[in-house]
Design a protein that fits this description.
Layout: E1 15-29, E2 32-39, E3 45-46, E4 49-51, H1 58-70, E5 76-89, E6 98-109, E7 126-131, H2 135-138, H3 145-155
Parallel strand pairs: 1-6
Antiparallel strand pairs: 1-2, 1-4, 2-3, 2-7, 5-6
């Protein structure tokens, strides 16, 4: 699969622009389709994501973040799920700075036997496998709903 470099978001002189990438990972078992979810540093259930490093394609960053945060050893990139465009005021690294962030999400699969090994060093408080039909009600962040819906359709193919 060929990776393409991503352009930075449009600059705003008062905002810091960032690009992140993440993924929804699923496995097919005899009991059905399960997705990995994690509890982030804010105590909210979501999916792995993180900053795209210099020279890294968004797909590569998404895969790296999944491996780092969930401790999965074998994942396969299937397709892009979309981009979320958010604005917020940073409360941690650049306190008070307005951040414009583009987050690219991708769908990944992993073997049925895969086990989650959440990494506390990556600020993952907990991780679990959830049946596909419980994803929408367990995801805290509303802006992820279109991404989740696209993933749910894709895994039924």
């Amino acid at each position: 699969m060929k990776f393409k470099k991503t352009k930075l978001p449009i600059k705003n002189k008062n905002a810091r622009c960032e690009i992140s990438a993440g993924g929804l990972v699923f496995k097919r078992t005899s009991k059905g389709i399960y997705f990995a979810m994690m509890k982030d540093s804010y105590g909210k259930w979501t999916f792995p994501k993180g900053h795209v490093e210099s020279g890294e394609a968004t797909e590569e960053a998404a895969a790296r973040e999944i491996i780092e945060e969930l401790g999965l050893e074998e994942i396969k990139l299937l397709e892009p799920l979309g981009k979320i465009d958010i604005w917020f005021r940073d409360q941690h690294v650049h306190k008070g700075t307005i951040i414009h962030k583009d987050i690219f999400y991708f769908l990944f699969s992993t073997p049925a036997k895969a086990e989650l090994n959440p990494q506390i060093a990556e600020h993952v408080l907990e991780a679990k496998w959830l049946p596909a039909n419980q994803l929408l009600k367990n995801s805290y962040y509303e802006d992820l709903i279109p991404v989740i819906k696209k993933a749910l359709v894709a895994v039924q193919k």
